[in-house]
């Protein structure tokens, strides 16, 4: 199969779909790899590095899209990209379609087979291709919050961990999954006063065991959210419903009870955000203020650390990508977990949560594949 790797063009996105080491794996499996010139610059990989791994360098993205059977990316295709996709081609990348009807329509009209990293599953019920970026985003959320808390950024002027004789910042983390756990690790490590909300008693018990009392846990209810947001200096939104739009848990009304200069970090912004006042921002202009509360809602947080992120992502995506390259659509027919990643095929939405969110018809993925 001819595998194409275009340069990412989303604002401040420096990750790359395949690092040179992954290219070597595709080539060793008998595939040819076409990489757009400069695609690896953000991970300090030159065109020569890709050529040494066995890739061919393309002069532009148009060549990559035109000459490839499968496109491997990181972020969802932008309008100029989805217009270059075609029927019979496989797109393998993050999509986050539920809050993005424009992209969904574009992919449906293209006829492409779109496999989303974020809905591929594993035997343990996890999301193995989402997990590494969730780990990165969870840790970055605390770095971003600590910076936003400084006075010159408009924050409360707090040091996250305080100093002897001065209380640390209070950090509320909504959601105890991968993002929330890694956010808590960072916040606890900095010495913050951390509380995690979740609706799973089993997960709360696991978190209590993990942190050994260094982070408090509380069952998530509306009352708990009201009480905890009122006293928090930082709130991290780390909720996830696979493939679906995130629920709006922190309302505009709740902001009125929050401290002036407190910080909201919405890690769920790729899925539409879990704060009512969230809107996507970029690394170039990451924050805005609503009711004296700073909002950090960067939609591609791991793009800030592309070297770490790209290698972590490739470690997870490589085996499934090789399955697609080796077997094509038969890989989707044969493997339930990979097939869960199929969101769109030849104009049909094949993931239930996406069809529900967008209000469009759903087709069973096996039926769609024939």
What is shown here, in short?
The chain has 15 helices and 15 strands.
Describe the structure using short key phrases.
370 residues, alpha/beta, Rossmann fold, 2 domains, eight-stranded mixed β-sheet, seven-stranded mixed β-sheet, globular
Strand order in space, largest sheet: 3-2-1-4-5-6-14-15
CATH topology label of the largest domain: Rossmann fold
**Alpha-carbon distance between the two ends:** 21 Å
Counted by DSSP, the helix tally is 15
User: Which geometry do the CA atoms define?
Assistant: globular
Secondary-structure blueprint:
Blueprint lengths: L1 E4 L14 H9 L3 E5 L10 H6 L3 E3 L2 H7 L2 E3 L6 H4 L7 E4 L7 H10 L2 E4 L14 H18 L21 E5 L3 H12 L3 E6 L2 H11 L3 E5 L2 H10 L2 E4 L14 H4 L7 E4 L20 E4 L2 E4 L9 H22 L1 H6 L1 H4 L2 E4 L2 E2 L2 H7 L6 H5 L1
Parallel strand pairs: 1-2, 1-4, 2-3, 4-5, 5-6, 7-8, 7-10, 8-9, 10-11, 11-13
Antiparallel strand pairs: 6-14, 12-13, 14-15
């Amino acid at each position: 199969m001819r595998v194409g790797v275009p340069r990412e063009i989303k604002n401040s996105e420096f990750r790359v779909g395949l690092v040179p080491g992954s290219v070597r794996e595709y080539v060793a499996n008998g595939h040819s790899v076409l990489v757009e010139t400069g695609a690896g610059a953000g991970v300090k990989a030159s065109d020569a590095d890709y050529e040494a791994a066995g890739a061919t360098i393309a002069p532009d993205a148009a060549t990559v899209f035109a000459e490839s059977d499968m496109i491997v990316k990181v972020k969802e295709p932008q309008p100029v990209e989805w217009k270059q996709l075609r029927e019979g081609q496989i797109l393998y990348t993050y999509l986050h379609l539920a809050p993005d009807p424009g992209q969904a329509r574009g992919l449906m009209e293209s006829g492409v087979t779109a496999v989303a990293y974020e809905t591929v599953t594993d035997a343990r019920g996890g999301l193995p291709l989402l997990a590494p970026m969730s780990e990165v985003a969870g840790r970055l959320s605390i770095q971003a919050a600590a910076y936003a808390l400084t006075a010159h950024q408009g924050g409360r002027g707090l040091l996250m961990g305080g100093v002897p004789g001065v209380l640390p910042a209070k950090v509320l983390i909504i959601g105890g999954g991968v993002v929330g756990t890694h956010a808590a690790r960072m916040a606890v490590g900095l010495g913050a006063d951390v509380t995690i909300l979740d609706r799973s008693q089993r997960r709360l018990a696991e978190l209590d065991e993990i942190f050994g009392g260094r982070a408090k846990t509380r069952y998530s209810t509306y009352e708990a959210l009201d009480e905890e947001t009122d006293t928090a200096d930082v709130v991290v939104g780390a909720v996830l419903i696979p493939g679906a739009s995130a629920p709006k848990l922190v309302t505009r009304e709740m902001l009125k009870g929050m401290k002036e200069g407190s910080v909201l970090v919405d890690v769920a912004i790729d899925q539409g955000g879990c704060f009512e006042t969230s809107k996507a921002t970029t690394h170039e202009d990451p924050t805005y203020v609503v009711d004296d509360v700073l909002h950090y809602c960067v939609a591609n947080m791991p793009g800030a650390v592309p070297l770490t992120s790209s290698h972590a992502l490739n470690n997870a995506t490589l085996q499934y990508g090789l399955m697609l390259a080796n077997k094509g659509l038969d890989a989707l027919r044969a493997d339930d977990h990979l097939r869960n990643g199929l969101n769109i095929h030849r104009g049909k939405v094949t993931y239930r949560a996406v069809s529900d969110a967008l209000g469009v018809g759903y087709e069973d993925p096996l039926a769609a594949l024939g």
